[in-house]
Hints:
Elements: H1 6-20, H2 23-34, E1 38-39, H3 40-47, H4 51-63, E2 67-72, E3 75-80, H5 83-102
Antiparallel strand pairs: 1-3, 2-3
Amino acid sequence: MSDWSPDLAIERAVDLLACMAHPVRLSVLVRLHRVGPANVSTLQDELGVEQSALSHHLRHLRTTRLVAGERDGKQVVYRLLDEHVGCIVDDTLQHAAELDAAEP
Length: 104
């Protein structure tokens, strides 16, 4: 028997969307989706975010299961956990662009 319930699914979706609702975290997701996996140094340079702040945001993204980190020597390379995350990112940005286009 499955433990899945609509209420649990909604609670998890709210957690996921709340995690994405921060500019740095969404920027990380967009970068990983559009360009591909990256280590902290690369993300820090490209996004202009301080290392400690970036690590904090990456921890949130891992906890919410939006990204995964894999050790490569002394570095951790981050990637989107799965293709669904990329779809959410694309759909969110597309919807936001459509809202801008629809404004008078």
